[in-house]
């Protein structure tokens, strides 16, 4: 859920970021969204190849790290940086590919480890889908009202309002992704690296 809401917040705010921070056109908005999803789909086979070398958890952590780096860069963009933002969309789309391809495979492995394969798969995936929908609802229901409370409204162009938008669109997801990567490390990667004691 921590990783999911980190992805849902920028998905909710991207059009405002393009329109107000970048002062981009509707054509840029369309190109950015299209490129994002095309790169997400195209990157999934690459993430599956990474799994063969690094394992599921480490590959997913790598995807989270890529997302953080890309959004830190995006926080430096401003009016007229539409072409650079398209690169951001391509790279963040590639990072999204890890979110699409790997967590479900990890969940399937957990179901096997728990001995619930064929008995409770639906419950696991049902709760997983519930969490996904909840993330989107929280991002949409909280992000814009919170931004309004902090001084940003759609169409704003003053520096303080745009800074609030940039923090919400770029830096808050970075913080959440970093937290999700830490949870992944301490829950899966570190325990798997410990030698078994006799």
Which features characterize this protein?
mainly alpha, Growth Hormone, Chain: A, 198 residues, 83% helix, 7 helices
What does this structure look like?
- There is one protein chain.
- The chain has 198 residues and is mostly helical.
- It has a single domain, classed as Up-down Bundle (Growth Hormone, Chain: A), CATH 1.20.1250.
- The chain is built from seven helices and no strands.
- It is globular, with a radius of gyration of 18 Å.
- The mean pLDDT is 90.
CATH class, named Mainly Alpha
**CA-CA gap between termini:** 35 Å
| H/E series | HHHHHHH
Mean pLDDT: 90
Q: Judging by the overall fold, what is the CATH architecture? A: Up-down Bundle
Number of helices: 7
Which structural class is indicated by helix and strand composition?
Answer: mainly alpha
How do the helices and strands line up, and which of them pair or pack?
Elements: H1 2-21, H2 26-54, H3 56-74, H4 82-101, H5 103-113, H6 121-150, H7 159-193
Helix pairs in contact: 1-6, 1-7, 2-3, 2-4, 3-4, 3-7
Brief characterization of the structure:
α3 runs antiparallel to α7 (159-193). This protein starts with a helix and ends in a 5-residue tail after the last helix.
